[in-house]
Specification:
The protein has 426 residues and is α/β, with parallel strands linked by helices. The chain contains twelve helices and 21 strands. Helix content is 28%, strand content 25%. α2 runs parallel beside α9 and α8 runs parallel beside α9. It is globular. Bound molecules: pyridoxal-5'-phosphate.
């Protein structure tokens, strides 16, 4: 899996034995591979290089400023959804003109900060938001660019909670309404409404929804142009599949093979907002076995990481490949853990220490035999892992460690108990 590989039965992150990292920073911990991040970014950049493309990595997937810094240096722009993410991008030294800003509830302060940055495009989610942007732009004597977010009413066939491009969603406006929005606000003289934004949702596993959405959006752009509006860019959002189970998601090149020909010669700049497809496989979460336990017919492996550290399995029912960090030869992981049936492997639930029935990392999973103290790697933990973690059960948030070749650096320290109450001392 990318730059997390087993050598002689031991898991390495690039050139570093992950057990060494556990010795240095303890467990649980997030471990990132810089090379994997950059490889995934480069794959997207190359796949769309025929077009005038700006890749805006979606900060909410994984937002450590040290990671944003090297992505910015590699040419990435950023997709933000809050003032806090704008601040992070600025701290990382991003070219703010390559920032796009989505979100249904932007506050006045967030909008003013983004105009001052200045960012590239505001992705507008409603008429009222656009009116407010026009008003604030007038007051502050700015001329920001904006893209209207449209709902192409396409189902990416992912989990309901990660589906955002259907008609009944709180995001954007439907295609028919989009034309009326341009009619009413297209020539307001203050905000340059000159682009269309689409984001279908996350974790799609096929190319078709993008093709369908793009067809509908290109038709809309033709209509808008015929109505006399200048449309300079199309933002196709994110949601490109990240490979969680091995070879179950299309690669960037597969998406591009369908998308690029449709956009050639259309005189449109392309913006993409990949999050998970860049970040997901770029990290593991390393955790330690605390106890083994039987409950009726079930076997539980109780580890020191909980749903507060990685919430995706209970929240989205997401699959993460999970395997011990040190294994005997016969337990070298195969291609797909779901089908894995190695002699001597066991079917277990891997659960955390939190007081909730939903606190699991995997259920009914085959796992090589483990003992108290063994290290276990939860793969594909780079996207919506650390960024969705919390202090629930007053558990300090994990350290983030960045591996670069043969060296590793702690890019965020583990929280301490004092950190937990620091803001409560009144
Ligand atoms: C979350 C989000 C993305 C990134 O989605 P991924 O599934 O991580 O690729 C892109 N654009 C917008 C507007 C988002 O909200």
């Amino acid at each position: 899996m990318d730059h997390f590989r087993y050598k002689d039965g031991r898991l390495y992150a690039e050139g570093v034995d992950v057990s060494k990292i556990a010795e240095a920073v303890g467990t649980p911990a997030y471990i990132y591979s810089k090379a994997t991040f950059l490889d995934h970014l480069k794959k997207v950049q190359e796949a769309y290089s025929e077009l005038d493309t700006t890749i805006c990595y979606s900060i909410k997937a994984c937002s450590n400023i040290n990671i944003l810094k090297f992505l910015a240096q590699a040419g990435s722009g950023f997709d933000i959804v809050s003032g806090g993410e704008l601040f992070r991008a600025q701290q990382a030294g991003a070219d703010t003109t390559k920032i796009v800003y989505a979100g249904v509830g932007k506050t006045d302060q967030e909008i003013v900060d983004a105009m001052n940055a200045p960012i590239g495009y505001f992705n507008i989610e409603s008429e009222m938001e656009l009116e407010n942007l026009i008003k604030l732009a007038r007051e502050h004597d700015k001329n920001p660019k904006a893209a209207l977010r449209v709902n192409p009413d396409v189902d990416p066939k992912t989990h309901t909670y990660t589906t955002t491009g259907k008609k009944e969603s709180k995001f954007g406006v439907d295609i028919e309404r989009a034309r009326r929005v341009f009619e009413e606000y297209g020539k307001n003289g203050q905000v340059d409404l000159c682009a269309i934004h689409v984001h279908l949702g996350s974790a799609g596993k096929t190319v078709e929804p993008y093709v369908e959405a793009l067809e509908k959006t290109l038709k809309l752009i033709d209509d808008l142009r015929a109505d006399g509006h200048t449309i300079e860019a199309i933002d196709l959002g994110g949601g490109y599949g990240a490979d969680y189970e091995t070879n179950t998601a299309p690669a960037a090149a597969n998406y591009a093979a369908a998308i690029v020909p449709m956009l050639k010669g259309k005189n449109l700049k392309l913006i993409l907002e990949p999050g998970a497809s860049v970040a997901a496989n770029s990290a593991i979460m390393l955790t330690k076995v605390l106890y083994l336990k039987k409950g009726g017919k079930k076997k539980f492996v109780i580890v020191d990481a909980g749903m507060n550290d990685l919430i995706r399995p209970p929240l989205y029912g997401s699959f993460h490949f999970i395997w011990p960090a040190v294994v005997e030869d016969k337990f070298m992981p195969g291609k797909r853990q779901k089908d894995m049936n190695i002699d001597g492997s066991e079917i277990v639930d891997i659960v955390g220490p939190i007081c909730e029935g939903s606190d699991f990392l995997a259920q009914g999973r085959s796992l090589a035999p483990v003992q108290r103290g063994d290290l276990i790697s939860v793969f594909t933990a780079g996207a919506y892992g650390y960024t969705m973690s919390s202090n629930y059960n007053s558990r300090p948030m994990l350290p983030e460690v960045l591996v670069d070749g043969d060296t590793f650096t702690t890019i965020r320290k583990r929280q301490t108990y004092s950190d937990l109450i620091a803001l409560e001392k009144v």
